[in-house]
Specification:
about 400 residues, DNA polymerase, domain 1, hpI Integrase, Chain A, 3 domains, three-stranded antiparallel beta sheet, alpha+beta, elongated
Length: about 400
């Protein structure tokens, strides 16, 4: 009787754990076909194909050799074969399905297909890749990438704006995020023996920029925000409205820029974010925020932008930098502050006022873990007052 086709032959590590023997270990690759691996005392092992045949003989199988396993040498698809290649040869009767080297674009496509089932951020990652990776590296075979090529692409994403002192750090932070996407896709391709990628040096040795994560030390008091808005209104009323909306909701720029008149529900005191970074959500508004949105939404049709630029168009991704710096300078606020500081200020002030962190995270479209990690200094400052106000007491202290 032939041995049952139940062995794990899919990786070099799994095959190395098998005991050396003359008889092959088998795995099923078709209704009547199995792939066999002969484990030798001294590697490499070899692949064989076993096919069931219609015969009256005592052993109704035909067994033919495929070639050497890639236990030691690089799989070339000719004499040395990876598990995936050998399985294809066994199942297809001697034909490899695809011998073309995988490109960076194909590696990214395969990665995103897998990511879509596991992460809500797959579409955002795909859009970043389509903008920053594919135009520069997409057509290259992964096996031909060099460290110099990847490092040059990575450095090319860093930008300096003389009018924005934080532009370099922000662009480095963004470049790190995009490098992470590229590395994840290429690592996935490298781990698949079918792709015949001999080394990951080209991208593994490219290191991310250090200490460039978004700084969140700046945050404003209400009086400072009022001054900022007032100075912005002196040269751009539409931008002043955008600033006020950011502070009253804690929403991100992209979320605010996409709002339409239909997204404000005065009767329920709710603002609907339909396309937020973390998905759709409903932002519960204060009475002050409701009054503000009633003012900016007056006479607007449901399809109209709620917070447009002065010319009626939507705010672009980076169009807030210069007017913000101008308003901040007029209000004598720190030059290190940015539009994001308004969101940071909203979260910081809400923590100080005692808003439950779970509610705050839900309203801002973020996670409780993120708030606890990035606002630890604010939480520490309010810890004693919160304990005093909320902990059980046995007797009243005069």
């Amino acid at each position: 009787m032939p041995r049952r086709a139940t062995s794990d032959l899919s990786s070099k590590t799994a095959r190395a754990k098998l005991k050396p023997r003359k008889q092959p270990y088998f795995v099923q690759v078709g209704p009547t076909t199995t792939l066999g691996y002969v484990r030798r005392t001294v590697p490499p092992g070899s692949w064989v194909r076993r096919q069931r045949v219609d015969t009256d003989g005592a052993y109704p199988y035909e067994q033919t050799p495929i070639g050497t396993a890639d236990d030691v040498a690089f799989a070339d698809g000719k004499t040395v074969f990876s598990y995936t290649q050998a399985a294809q040869l066994a199942a297809n009767g001697g034909a490899l399905v695809d011998s073309k080297p995988i490109t960076v674009k194909r590696a990214l496509d395969a990665y995103f297909t897998d990511l879509e089932g596991r992460s809500p951020h797959a579409q955002e990652a795909r859009q970043r890749a389509e903008k920053h990776i594919i135009p520069k590296l997409g057509r290259y075979p992964v096996v031909k990438l060099t460290k110099t090529q990847v490092a040059h692409w990575f450095a090319g994403m860093v930008k300096d704006d003389p009018e924005d002192g934080d532009s370099r750090r922000r662009s480095q932070d963004t470049a790190n995020r995009i490098l992470t996407i590229l590395k994840a896709a290429l690592n996935r391709a490298f781990e698949d023996d079918a792709n015949n990628i001999p080394s990951d040096n080209a991208w593994r040795k490219v290191k991310a920029f250090r200490a460039v994560e978004a700084a969140r030390e700046d945050h404003f008091a209400a009086a400072q925000v009022r001054s900022l808005i007032g100075k912005a209104a002196s040269f751009d009323r539409a931008f002043a409205n955008l600033l006020e909306a950011a502070y009253l909701t804690g929403a991100r720029l992209g979320e605010l820029a996409g709002l339409q008149g239909r997204d404000f529900h005065a009767e329920r005191a709710v603002l609907s974010i339909r396309k937020g970074k973390t998905g759709a959500r409903a932002v519960t508004l204060t009475d002050e925020a409701v009054r503000f949105f009633k003012r900016v939404s007056k006479d607007r049709v449901p399809e109209a932008l709620l917070l447009p630029r002065a010319d009626g168009e939507a705010w672009g991704k980076s169009e807030q930098h210069r007017p913000f710096k101008r308003a901040a300078a007029l209000a004598e606020l720190p030059s290190s502050a940015s539009f994001y500081t308004l969101r940071h200020s909203y979260i910081s002030r809400a923590i100080e006022a005692g808003m439950p962190l779970s509610l705050l995270a839900e309203n801002c479209g973020t996670s409780l873990t993120m708030i606890q990690r990035n606002y630890a200094h604010v939480l520490a400052a309010t810890r004693r007052d919160t304990i005093e106000a909320t902990a059980p007491k046995l007797r009243r202290v005069k």
